[in-house]
Design goal:
Layout (H helix, E strand, L loop, with lengths): L1 H19 L14 H27 L12 H28 L9 H32 L27 H4 L10 H19 L30 H4 L2 H5 L5 E5 L2 E5 L1 H6 L3 E8 L5 E10 H7 L8 E5 L8 E4 L1 H4 L5 E6 L2 E2 L9 E3 L12 E6 L1
Parallel strand pairs: 1-10
Antiparallel strand pairs: 1-2, 3-4, 4-7, 5-6, 5-10, 7-8, 7-9
Helix pairs in contact: 1-2, 1-4, 2-3, 2-6, 3-4
Length: about 375
């Protein structure tokens, strides 16, 4: 189960990183509109589930960490080194991931890059560990059991010459029936319950059906206009410029620059869509947005839908004050330059005077307080 949750967490995290920092070969579709909501929700949920599973795994093999001799052979040394790297990187990933979910950053490094790099360390150490264990796995799978033997070996009948071939959990879990120990069944039951409670208690941040029972879920349903706010206008330093009557949206094409006032944008044909906004921290929330479709705005300035756009915000110093909107999204009629949210004029914390909202995109790329669109 730990292998499953860690693999899901790694793959979905890799996708999220590629979406936010796409290489030339990468493609991410705009449909279905909930795709990023699902992948990022799965990333956070699988990460939460991995925590009790990792603790259970380490508890089950804890005595082996102090086995003597410390190193018996080169494969044994590689195994112990891979476990050291794997344990350290796994704890780092899960602990920093939890702090990221809480938007608490008690460190001086750029979280996405370091989190991404250490994820590769964790997966690499898993592969090394599996490679070193392959001979043991092969012997265990091909060994013939004696007639009438079950699937559980017992100390009194086991061949002591093959103790290194037994499952790693055997030393800690062969306590079934002993009054002073936790049985294998009890250990597994406790692990499943702890994992289930952790998931149910937090998954409401991204799974609507669990919101009323997820006491530890974060963000969802809170904030102005029924939508959470990660970065306020005050934090972005745009309270004055966003409300300035002289604000104009600049749309830059090969033919020149055209500027729109807020009144001129409101005079253009408006479209209403329901789209989820999904944050990299794992929370998501559906909302009703109204504004100008990006394809129609491009046509209004003499360009064509399907071109790449650089979107610039009034915010000057934020990490995501500029985003790239690829052609797949600029050709989608659900991609809006939004002016309203849930039937009201955009609150300044949600991006007034206008913001980008596009299907299947991370929230950090749904740029708020838009000041300029550049056709690339």
């Amino acid at each position: 189960m730990l292998a499953v949750t860690f693999t899901v967490c790694f793959i979905t995290g890799l996708l999220s990183h590629l979406i936010q920092h796409p290489p030339e070969w990468f493609f991410w579709p705009s449909r279905p509109i909930w795709l990023y909501r699902v992948t990022q929700g799965a990333h956070v949920i699988s990460g939460v589930a991995s925590i009790p599973l990792l603790l259970a795994k380490l508890w089950s093999v804890f005595p082996k960490l102090f086995g003597r001799p410390v190193v018996r052979s080169l494969p044994h040394a590689l195994e112990r080194l891979s476990i050291l790297v794997l344990s350290g990187s796994a704890f780092f990933e899960l602990s920093t991931g939890l702090l990221n979910v809480a938007q608490n950053y008690p460190w001086g490094f750029y979280f996405p890059q370091v989190h991404y790099a250490v994820a590769w360390l964790a997966i690499g150490s898993i592969l090394v560990h599996i490679a070193v264990k392959l001979p043991v796995v092969r012997r265990a799978l091909t060994r013939e059991l004696p007639a009438g033997a079950g699937t559980t070996s017992h100390p009194e009948t086991a061949d002591h010459s093959e103790t290194t071939d037994r499952p790693e959990t055997a030393d800690r879990l062969e306590t079934a029936g002993r009054p002073d120990g936790l049985s294998r069944r009890g250990f597994l039951r406790t692990t499943w319950i702890a994992t289930g409670v952790a998931v149910v208690a937090t998954a409401g941040a991204t799974v609507p059906l669990l919101r009323n029972v997820s006491g530890l879920s974060w963000k969802t349903g809170k904030g102005t206009q029924g939508l959470p706010v990660n970065r306020t206008a005050v934090a972005a330093g745009v309270t004055r410029t966003a409300r300035d009557a002289a604000w104009r949206l600049s749309v830059v094409t090969a033919a020149g620059t055209k500027k729109f006032s807020l009144e001129e944008l409101r005079a253009l044909p408006q479209t209403t869509v329901m789209l989820p906004i999904a944050c990299v921290e794992g929370w998501s929330q559906s909302a009703v947005w109204r504004g100008i479709t990006v394809p129609s705005l491009l046509q209004a300035v003499g360009s064509r839908p399907g071109v790449d756009l650089r979107v610039s915000s009034l915010e000057k110093n934020g990490l995501y004050n500029v985003s790239m909107l690829p052609g797949e999204h600029t050709s989608d009629n659900d991609t809006l330059l939004a002016l309203e949210l849930n039937g009201e004029v955009l609150d300044i914390d949600h991006g007034f005077p206008c913001r980008i909202i596009a299907p299947s995109r991370p929230g950090v790329l749904q740029t708020k307080w838009v000041s300029k669109l550049e056709v690339l």
